[in-house]
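Late entry, written up from scratch paper. The run itself happened at the end of the previous shift, but nothing got recorded in the book at the time, so transcribing now.
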Amino acid sequence: MTYPKKIFLVGMPGSGKSTFGKLLADQLGRQFFDLDEQIEKMSGMSIPDIFEDAGEDQFRMFETYALSMITQLNEPALIATGGGAPCFNGNMDFMNQSGCTIFLDTPLKTIIERVTKDRETRPLVKKMAKSDVTADMTSLYERRLKFYQQAAFTSDSNMKEIISYLESL
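Output as recorded:
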C-alpha cells in the first residue's frame, strides 16, 4: 500500500498525538517522529526549560525549524506535532503542502483530564491555576480549532478510519 510520504498529526495537547501516532506509524510501517522530542534533541533543552529560559516565541522558532528539518528527510514518516505547531509561522500551510494532515479531534473533557494529570510537563498548562484548567483549555481549543480544521482529515483516533482514508489517497 502506498501512503503519503509525510503524515502529520495535529490536535490539542493531550489529544493523543504521540501515543496514537506511535501505534499508527507501526501499523503503516514508517518511522515515527514526535516533534517535541526532536526540538529537545536539537536544542539540548527540555520543552519546559525552553519556555522558561527563552520564552514561547523562541520555542515556536525551534518548532518551525524542527518541523522543516523532519519534513526534508527523504524517508516516509509520521510526525506528531505539538498542540500549537499548526497555529504559528504558517506551519499548517507548510504541512498541508508537504503531506497529509490529520486532526485528532479528541473530546475536550478527555483532553482536560489528561493535561490536568500531566501538568508539570506541559508548559502552557503548568502556568494555569488548577482551578482554571477547564476554562483555559476550552479557550485554547476555541482559538486553535480554526487551524486544526484546515487538516485534510479529522478523526477521533479511529485507527481503521484513518488507515482507510490514507488508502483512498
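The radius of gyration is 15 Å.
(Scratch paper discarded after transcription.)
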